[in-house]
Design brief:
Bound molecules: iron/sulfur cluster
Order of helices and strands: EHEHEEHEHEHEEHHEHEEHEHHE
CATH class of the largest domain: Alpha Beta
Number of helices: 11
Number of strands: 13
Distance between the termini: 34 Å
Number of domains: 3
Radius of gyration: 21 Å
Oligomer: single chain
Strand content: 15-25%
CATH superfamily of the largest domain: 4-hydroxy-3-methylbut-2-enyl diphosphate reductase, catalytic domain
Helix content: 25-40%
Structural class: alpha/beta
Largest sheet: 6 strands, parallel
CATH topology of the largest domain: Cobalt-precorrin-4 Transmethylase, domain 1
Strand order of the largest sheet: 10-9-11-1-12-13
């Protein structure tokens, strides 16, 4: 079997940063308990590994003892959550991804100008709940074109759309086109809100999927960007499965399959992808072809709230770097495991998101 390993895949800069925030806190807090509001990132293994190290995840700020340390997850929170944390005298450490913060800032800016905002995204997703909370009176959520007739618009000339960062580019475009048809004066955000990591992972799958008989996406079911990767395969007519780890593999899926595209969502640790590759090679033999579509170099620094806490505890934040572990390690891992592999650079056609 040929395993086509998509690059980029796995951790994005926002996830590296959010995970590192909790790691650094565990380093400096000693016996003091660390609480995290909601899952730090949407991955079952990441959350369980932190639970095993003593971190408590909560869905209500009221469940955090007064005066404790509370981390806001990468998906961001609403101002109401921030205010409640302040009321309870919590030390709030904000691990919101800067690209989610950018969408919050846009919502605040346009709401202050008296504009209405159509937020394209999934109503129940933590990120959308947080963004909507910035200006609930100005924001209406649009999940699908069928929602458009129910929108209440006061002045179509003061109307803008924003989007959740982890949407499918294709699905978002369908909704945006329908919105523009209904409201021709609709304004666009100055730059796309769908983040670079979501875009790059989707572009890689779209570019490689025509060569694959089957697609495996490693990721949790509540991870929006992971689910979107399986949808790209489905739209291409290629069967796909979303799995948390190798234990969910079913050999029956691979009858008559010669090539499998393997990728992972932005919140998935690379060791889980390694586990899947190892299990496939053990069962079916074959080789790994790493397909390099984009070389990602984005990194975010530690958030200001953590840096301040570190300084208060005598730790110089400038001596702490975010711990990053990229695909070079996969090449070394493949060699150590004696798994035949090679790397192929993929040049995108313009229609696939490549440069003209
Ligand atoms: S997927 Fe995008 S928005 Fe979400 S944490 Fe990663 S970089 Fe940030």
């Amino acid at each position: 079997m040929k395993i086509l390993l998509a690059n980029p895949r796995g951790f994005c800069a926002g996830v590296y940063m959010a995970i590192d925030v909790v790691d650094q806190l565990l380093d400096i807090c000693g016996d003091e308990k660390v609480f995290v509001f909601h899952e730090i990132v949407h991955n079952r293994h990441v959350v369980q590994r932190f639970r095993d190290r003593g971190v408590t995840f909560v869905e209500r700020v009221e469940d955090v003892p007064e005066g404790s340390i509370l981390v806001f997850s990468a998906h961001g929170v609403s101002p109401a959550v921030r205010a409640l944390a302040k009321e309870r005298n919590l030390t709030a450490i904000d691990a919101t991804c800067p690209l989610v913060m950018k969408v919050h800032a846009g919502a605040i800016r346009y709401a202050k100008r008296g504009w209405q905002i159509l937020l394209v995204g999934h109503r129940d997703h933590q990120e959308v709940i947080g963004t909507r909370g910035e200006a609930p009176e100005a924001i209406q959520v649009v999940e699908r074109p069928e929602d458009i007739p129910d929108l209440v618009i006061h002045d179509p000339s003061k109307l803008i759309y924003l989007t959740q960062t982890t949407l499918s580019l294709d699905d978002a475009n369908v909704i945006i086109r329908a919105l523009k048809a209904a409201f021709p004066e609709l304004h666009e955000p100055p730059s796309s809100d769908i983040c670079y990591a979501t875009t790059n992972r989707q572009t890689a799958v779209r570019a490689i999927v025509p060569e694959a008989d089957f697609v495996l996406v490693v990721g949790s079911r509540n991870s929006s960007n992971s689910v979107r990767l399986t949808e790209i395969a489905t739209n291409d007519g290629t069967p796909s499965r979303l799995i948390d780890d190798a234990s969910e593999l079913d050999s029956a899926w691979f009858a008559g399959v010669d090539s499998v595209l393997v990728t992972s969502g932005a919140s998935v640790p690379e060791d889980l992808v390694h586990g899947v590759i190892e299990a496939l090679i053990e069962r079916f033999g074959g080789e790994v072809e790493q397909r390099d579509v984009h070389d990602e170099r984005v990194e975010f620094g530690l958030p200001g709230t953590l840096r301040e806490l570190m300084r208060g505890r005598g730790v110089d934040p400038d001596t702490r770097r975010i711990r990053i572990d990229r695909e070079a390690d996969t090449a070394a891992w493949l060699a150590r495991k004696h798994i035949p592999s090679r790397t192929v650079q993929v040049t995108l056609r313009e229609s696939e998101g490549g440069m003209p």
